[in-house]
Design goal:
Elements (H helix, E strand, L loop, with lengths): L1 H13 L14 H15 L5 H4 L5 H10 L5
Helix pairs in contact: 1-2
Length: 72
């Protein structure tokens, strides 16, 4: 399931257990960059800056990935 892949990437980049991932977690700007690069590589998408800037929550990540044709 692709959503599991999103959660796994978030878990790896943030260094937190999978069961602690929720829409309320936060990350800093450097972590944001690593997260975006990992998501782009995993799902084979190139995200424009305007979308990257809005991907500040797990929910927004899902919305933007769907917008670019990734089924999550």
């Amino acid at each position: 399931m692709k959503m599991d892949r999103v959660y796994y990437i978030i878990s790896e980049i943030l260094g937190i257990p999978l069961d602690e991932i929720n829409n309320g977690i936060e990350w800093d700007s450097l972590t944001h960059l690593h997260l975006i690069l990992a998501l782009e590589a995993e799902f084979g998408v190139s995200l424009p800056p305007e979308d990257i800037m809005t991907m500040l929550s797990v929910q927004q990540i899902q919305i933007i990935l769907r917008k670019h044709g990734v089924e999550v």
